[in-house]
Amino acid sequence: MLKAFMARLRQGYRTGTFPDTPPVLPERFIGRPEVFPEKVNDEARKICPVGAVSEQGKIDLGRCIFCGKCAQVCPEGIKFTSEYRLGAFSHEALEVPGMEPWQESSNPELRKLCGKSFKIRQVSAGGCAACELDFNVLNTLAWDIGRFGIQVVASPRHADALLVTGPVSDNMRLALEKTYNAMPKPSFVIAGGACAVSGGLYRDGTTAGGVESILPVDMFVPGCPPHPAVMLETLLRLIAYR
Amino acid sequence: MKNFLKISNGSAFKLDSLPILPFADFRQTLIDSTGSEKVRVAALFPMELNNQTLLTAILIDSADHCLRCGAAVTARSYPALTPEAPVFHWFERELFERYGITPETHPWLKPIRKADGEYFTMTGDAVNEVAVGPVHAGVIEPGHFRFQCMGEKVYSLEISLGYQSRGVEKLLEGPLSSRTMPLFETAAGDSAAAAATGAATLIEALSGIVPSMGAQQLRAIMIELERVANHTGDLGALAGDVAYLPTASFCGRIRGEYLNMTAEICGNRFGRNCIIPGGIRYEVDEKRRQKLLDWMKKVNAELKHALDLMFDSPTVLDRFENTGTVPLDVASSIGLVGVAARASGMDMDIRHELPCGFYKESAPEKVPGGKGDVLSRAKVRYDEIFASLDFIEKNLRNHEISAPVGGQLPELQSDSMAVAVTEAWRGELCQIMITGNNGNIIQSRIVDPSFHNWFGLAMALRDEEISNFPICNKSFNLSYCGHDL
């Protein structure tokens, strides 16, 4: 016991200072791009592995896996920044150029009911496990989401929201629907990561191509996988935490 | 095995040099040569060639430090290998499910990627059945576990997978494209560096590109960082499952530090979109190298402290020791690989047996094995962490800074097959790419280490208390998506 106590002293207090200060992101972090549609060339469209660059030269962040290859071949039309406020409450706000998603307000009913206590049931449906791993990180002492009244629960009966990761594989569709139906209403849905938002790399696979074709979605979190800071920032905006 | 083609790890060969054996010889060779760590099955799959279906096998020949490849024309059914060589049991179930090829007399041809509702059951007044999943209690991938118990004791565990199936191998078919590498990387998203290195090796072998030594070194550093991060997370999770919270909390945070070091190299915590055919997209310059070295020095000490605390706690050791044991003979007969195999006393590590890329120059020290229980699997991971950290530090210090490369996709040579086996953090990952007459990819195979090891977890639970399932499971921590593809 004494050893564990001493160890705690030695390891120290390690919870990050976000949201009071901006999160610490790697220098090479690829965040929201700046896009100049008239300058976006065919090369950029062709190199995108997920078809996120449209004919009109816009980028759909819901599809984007943030590999940055389009900016490599089209530096004059696309420039990635380290802007991490990527999450949106409507599919339209995922398009760049377009409205800045942080200007958008979230579902007022959700804010009223869940602003102080938000319980999330997560279902993994055909992804690659990276979204789950980086969401789990929010539960470690480095991020400690319990501070904000956000908690991950085991039973859908206790949950306010369902966080879906993965493109919804055909084999998981029934289990996902059953989980959603087991939640007390009103219930809310979060699509976490490119696969859940749009099918990502797996939209042409044996999947539903994203959760939106099955359930109504209240919050979209881009990324492959979303950085923990991206997920947390969007969650805090969703519940209007201050 | 002399009748099989000998190839080196990470190389390509023309399909017309693939030896096509009489089926009986092919079958006998597979039965006679496998069953110990000396010769292991990397892959068994059908391939369409010249209007014939060839059953193709890739073996790992540890003594000769090479891969062996052979094939035979197969009918829609053939006498199964499994009754005589159980290491093939999962592969043959896959053959039956995916291709409708029937290995006759296989004892249990149940699909491995589709829950069909039929399970092994026991009858009797005292028997109780426990069903878990596919949606589990935590934030984790889906799978279904069916326990047959008498009270607390588990007689049998059946693991039903396939919920993560999304068609990775099918999506890889067609011309080499900008989607090819991300698909390989996301087959099992927590092993992206190893998968990308293997996939880049395949493409390089099929196009004759040779990446610079510095780029290969950086790939190995990223694979080892991935190993350290995952082992750290799993040891923390093991601590959490026996309610030893100090190590659980510390490791949860420290795992993130290693992921952030990977992100320092390429911007992505999982090392995505960095390793590409021809080299690496990012450069680790002098300043970055020094930053990583200083950072690691600090974090490594914190990690050692957090882990030693756990391994010094009698209550933890008591829970780990003699729990979930997979003895050596069982491990060899079912063909375990990687951490789990080494913990059961099998001597295997691709980085030493069939080194590819930078591992030909240098590899982390081998670690001692164990007796197959949770404690052994935990200790193997502990030792591997520090072996890898030594390797990373040494190689960062003498890192040959290599210029980043662009993403030009090469032409692949036609009618060829390339095979790469990489020691990912769970164990050996086999990737295969086969091209057609126009250089397009006509078939890709991914055999994740979890494909070999899921049955090992089922064996670990035999005669075990059901309450020990979580620590048995965490000690393996297998990939659902890597298996399901």
Structural commentary:
The complex is a heterodimer of chains A (242) and B (485). By secondary structure, chain A is an alpha/beta fold. Helix content of chain A is 25%, strand content 14%. Chain A has a domain at 108-238: Rossmann fold (3-Layer(aba) Sandwich), CATH 3.40.50. In chain A, strands 6-5-7-8-9 form a 5-stranded parallel beta sheet, with helices on both faces. The longest helix of chain A has 11 residues, at 228-238. Chain A starts with a helix and ends with a helix. The mean pLDDT of chain A is 95. The radius of gyration of chain B is 22 Å and the shape is globular. Chain B has 485 residues and is an alpha+beta fold. Chain B folds into 2 domains: 5-104, NADH:ubiquinone oxidoreductase Nqo5 subunit (Beta Polymerase, domain 2); 168-452, Cytochrome-c3 Hydrogenase, chain B. Chain B starts with a strand and ends with a helix. Classes of the chains: A alpha/beta (242), B alpha+beta (485). At the A-B interface, helix 1, strand 5, helix 5 and helix 6 of A face helix 3, helix 7, helix 8 and helix 16 of B.
Q: What's the SSE blueprint?
A:
The complex is a heterodimer of chains A (242) and B (485).
Chain A: H1 2-11, E1 33-35, H2 42-47, E2 59-60, H3 69-73, E3 78-80, E4 95-96, H4 108-114, E5 118-124, H5 130-136, E6 150-152, E7 161-165, H6 173-181, E8 188-192, H7 194-198, E9 219-221, H8 228-238
Parallel strand pairs in A: 5-6, 5-7, 7-8, 8-9
Antiparallel strand pairs in A: 1-3, 2-4
Chain B: E1 5-7, E2 11-14, E3 20-21, H1 23-33, E4 39-49, E5 52-61, E6 66-73, E7 77-79, H2 89-99, E8 102-104, E9 127-132, E10 144-150, E11 153-160, H3 168-171, H4 180-185, H5 192-207, H6 213-241, H7 245-266, E12 275-276, E13 279-280, H8 286-311, H9 314-320, H10 328-334, H11 338-343, H12 350-353, H13 374-397, E14 416-423, E15 428-435, E16 441-447, H14 449-460, H15 469-476, H16 480-484
Parallel strand pairs in B: 3-6, 7-8
Antiparallel strand pairs in B: 1-6, 2-14, 4-5, 5-6, 9-10, 10-11, 12-13, 14-15, 15-16
